[in-house]
């Protein structure tokens, strides 16, 4: 005989409704803002022409675009990093991108601290959150966070949202999310700058090298994750 399921409480119904509304809002935001931004960043020639015609306003616009990309985690970040290098050059593009990614990560951190798991689950499944849960209990958590952040190919957007669920301090998180993104951003902006300077062979070499390093980064990340999961079971 099947057991009757207990009716959902008012709080659970409100939580489900809130998540559904948040998901719908994100879907609309991605469609109306995210898709055009990705298309804009994916057409570097048009982007550079737009930058050249808008001066310093373009700097602020680019920073705003990257911040939005970090907050709306489903928008891919690589096109913006490559476009930054193409439009602004390797040095300026890197500095703008690091500043924007850091600001976006700090905003995400603050939002998750305020709204908790309900906000995180708008973008990430429980399964994905479980995959980084070892960072919450590791005695070397801050160092491990920085190491994983510095590895190309690791899920930095997921880590940015997960960090807000831990008791990591604001100064420590500021250091991690700023320094940790430098390697992956530099490779993208340098490659984008090379395309802008028509050094196509060098650009291909940078992107192929980045792809290989990212593959190694993913392998190392998975080894670290599995090691900590096994240690926890033991």
Structure, briefly:
With 234 residues, the chain is an all-alpha fold. 81% of the residues lie in helices and 0% in strands. The chain has 13 helices and no strands.
Number of strands: 0
β-strand percent reads under 5%
Count of folded domains: 1
Largest sheet: none
H/I helix tally: 13
H and E order: HHHHHHHHHHHHH
Question: Quick check: average pLDDT?
Answer: 78
Radius of gyration, Cα only, in angstroms? 20 Å
| Distance linking N and C termini | 39 Å
Portion of residues within helices: over 70%
Q: Which class of secondary structure composition applies to the elements? A: mainly alpha
Shape: globular
Taking pLDDT < 50 over at least 5 consecutive residues as the criterion, the unreliable ranges are none
Describe the protein.
With 234 residues, the chain is an all-alpha fold. It has one domain. Helices cover 81% and strands 0% of the residues. The chain starts with 9 loop residues before the first helix and ends with a helix.
List the helices and strands and how they pair.
Elements: H1 10-41, H2 44-54, H3 56-71, H4 78-88, H5 90-115, H6 117-123, H7 126-131, H8 134-137, H9 141-150, H10 156-163, H11 170-179, H12 182-196, H13 200-233
Helix pairs in contact: 1-6, 2-3, 2-4, 3-5, 4-5, 4-12, 5-10, 5-11, 5-12, 9-11, 12-13
């Amino acid at each position: 005989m099947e057991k009757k399921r207990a009716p959902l409480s008012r709080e659970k119904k409100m939580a489900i409704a809130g998540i559904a509304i948040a998901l719908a809002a994100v879907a609309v935001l991605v469609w109306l803002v995210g898709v055009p931004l990705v298309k804009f960043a994916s057409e570097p020639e048009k982007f550079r022409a737009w930058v050249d015609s808008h001066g310093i306003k373009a700097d602020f616009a680019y920073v705003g675009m990257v911040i939005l990309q970090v907050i709306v985690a489903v928008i891919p970040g690589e096109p913006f990093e490559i476009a930054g290098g193409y439009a602004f050059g390797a040095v300026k593009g890197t500095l703008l991108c690091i500043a924007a990614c850091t600001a976006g990560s700090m905003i995400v951190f603050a939002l998750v601290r305020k709204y908790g798991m309900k906000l995180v689950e708008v973008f990430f499944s429980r399964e994905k959150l479980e995959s980084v849960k070892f960072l919450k209990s590791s005695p070397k958590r801050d160092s491990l966070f920085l190491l994983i952040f510095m590895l190309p190919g690791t899920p930095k957007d997921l880590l940015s949202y997960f960090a807000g669920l831990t008791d990591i301090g604001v100064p420590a998180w500021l250091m991690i999310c700023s320094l940790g993104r430098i390697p992956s951003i530099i490779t993208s902006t340098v490659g984008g700058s090379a395309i802008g300077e028509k050094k196509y062979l060098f650009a291909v070499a940078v992107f192929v090298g980045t792809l290989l390093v990212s593959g190694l980064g993913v392998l190392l990340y998975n080894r670290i994750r599995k090691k900590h999961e096994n240690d926890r079971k033991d």
